[in-house]
Request: fold
Amino acid sequence: MPTAREALLDAARRALADRPWRTVRMVDVAALAGVSRQTLYNEFGTKGGPATALLRQAADGYLTGVDRALTAPAPDLPAAVAFWTVRAAREDPLVKGLLTGLWEEGLPRPNHDVPGPARLLGLARDRMAAASLPVAGPVLTGESGRAAEPASAAERCEMVLRLALSCVIVPCRNRSCPADHPAAGPEEQGLTSSLVEALGSGAQMSTHARGTTMRTLVLGRTPARVTAVLATLRADGFDAQGVSTDEEALTLLRTGEFGVLIIGGGVGPASRAAIRAFATEHRVRRVIDGALREPFDTYVRNEFEPLIREAASQG
Reply:
């Protein structure tokens, strides 16, 4: 028999499946769980309690799946984790939000008690590095064409995970993704596994095409444009998060975790000045003023990404 907490979490997830989280009332969750409203408050306190618990449950479930994937035969470990990551993100919008920072309308948003994309990716990466990939292997190639230092197991594992997340952020268009089909044929599985394993074994990659570990915050008034910027940055390996309000931006900047801030053209002069001043007081190294022009992906790669790399190189 489930505990009161388990019943309440199940009820909260069912309520979220039916309607936007902002419209879910605590009394409704208690009624769905078959417990009193006082029991709910005893377990979670405020409405933010069930939301945080749902998000942590989703994060824990994803990491449990990573551990399960790491029981696959040794040569298939990177591909197994990549396939699991794509499936988990596509099947559960909470997992997708936690891994990418792209939150669908109506979902609860995480607070500082819930791992964000960088933290969750790091936890999965470290599990992979400890279980699967040797450190020795081919080296990365720098922009000068000279050999760079060999990529560590953690770096190669992160490349594999970012490849998987690119399939979530920018779905395959020309043909279905093998990760969508557990029974994919040997040829299709082998093609995808080979690509994943090439990254996992430290295959050569130009550093010009790689992102940086410096976190970037994107502030824009139009959510669709913020999403477009994030999609390109993340597909190119950058750790980025986006918001649409000054309050959200200030909350994230206060953590001191962001090195670059991009402020969209729709942000007014007063807000822009205040956010810029606040950012410089909280360890932001570069503030970029941006006004997107189509095609968005080209603009982001030509105007934003070089400045982010420059800021990271000065760190």
Q: What stands out?
A: The chain has three domains: 1-45, 58-210, 211-313. The CA atoms of residues 21 and 106 lie 5 Å apart. The longest helix spans residues 48-69. Residues 134-144, 146-150, 181-192, 198-209 have pLDDT under 50 and may be disordered.
